Amino acid sequence: MESLDPRLNRIDLDAFNQTKPKTRLDQFETYEVFVQAKENKSYQHEGVVHAPNEEMAFLFAKEQFSRRGTCTGIAVCKTENIKTSPTTDNGRNVYDEYEPPHSELGEYEKFDVFHLFRRGKQHLHIGKVEASSYDEAFNKSKALYNNDKTVLNVWVVKTENIMFIDENYRDIWYTLSEKQFREATAYRALDKIKKFKEENSLS
Amino acid sequence: MYGGGNTFEKLQTKALKDEDPQLLAVFEARIERGEKIEPTDWMPDLYRKQLIRMIEQHAHSEIIGALPEGTWITRAPGFKRKLALMAKVQDEVGHAQLLYSAAETLGKSREQMIDDLISGKSKYSNIFNYPAFTWADSCFISWLVDAGAIVNQTANARGSYGPYCRALERICIEESFHLKYGHHCVIHLATGTPIQRKMMQEAFNRWWPPMMHFFGPSDKISAHTEVLMKWKVKMDTNDNMRNQFLDMYVPKIWELGLTLPDPNLKKNEETGRWEYTEPDWEEFKRVINGDGPCNAERLAVRRMAEERGRWVRKALLSPKSKYVTPLA
User: Within 10 A of B324 (CB to CB), how many other CB atoms are there?
Assistant: First the structure.
């Protein structure tokens, strides 16, 4: 049948009847995305975007993860730059059970640390440590941030490899609250149904 | 937007008896305790493959599902409806991306998944192989296909695989807008002029049979799923989900004075279950296997997007790129 989409009828779709399989990395690398929903709240891992570079990753992350609610910050980091510990079962602390293998020492630099507190939940940004290697960063964060809450999984990333939004650009989210047309609350219609029922004496 | 239980084919996987019994016991105990499975955990081959298939089909359904509605963006009645429909279609495509990433954590690349969609190897929700003739059809989809998807997705969000649950939680929040928007659109037509009412009623007549197919084949004919239920991959049977959907939405359809094209549709007050004429499962199979009114067009549009975008992706790819599986 002819398409019901007039735009498609203007295109010769048959010209696209052969497609080559995708090549490796056709969809690019992945970046892990962290979102801060409100001022003073922790950045939280929200998911992944595929992107050719950090700037594009940031743009995709903004579209994908801050279309709703409130947002005051986004950070992106190439997946390959995150070092992770194993994941323990709920109630068992990975800091007590895991010792990271020694990694190569480098210059002292900053690392960002993320914790998972419950399986199925998101990793939260806990803070920064200064260290000369990933395992040293893990151990330092154990000393600094391992308190009464059980930590199931730890992510460590060099601060130079994670891009947080520049404080000065936060106004990109100021218009979020104006876009009520994509909120469920903008579509109330009970009155209309009630009126309709009364007029047609349907019960 | 996705309904479960779409395929009849059996997966080729390692037999359960060949899995390491100790690791299997740890895995099952974890699920039994209500804990989620995370990507780096050991999991049986059947669990991994079944989840990849399910999440991947769900992702494809979002991508393809954007097409019948997307068709109506340029002709949506008025600025407000256009804005809303654009936002909805953007959501659906975003959902596909969330889901592809969740499936990727299980080890199948996004390249491979999209290739399998285009080659017809992977399936997507069958309902999108039907055409949206009028604006009222797009209203039906926004309200009721999304309602069906919510029934399915809220169930799956209680499943055992962490990344899929996290994606579904986000998706369900966005779907609540789709549902309310769709209902609003249907109410507007159903309480409008006689011509509007007629248009809405005709859309219901067209879409009801594929809607009854949406939750997949009847439990009477679909494959046994005990182990998948035990592993919290499948959260409920197809017939139970269908029944839940009917229970929630048929009264809302009837209150608008609309009718449904099934004289046997009624709730059995004794059993609490809905009774209906058995959907035509032969048609369902036929359409899934390629013989529906829009299968060819849907895939051709995907192929076109694939071909037209290729040079852009190629130009952007840095030679230093290195692929690693996403983390969570």
Answer: 12
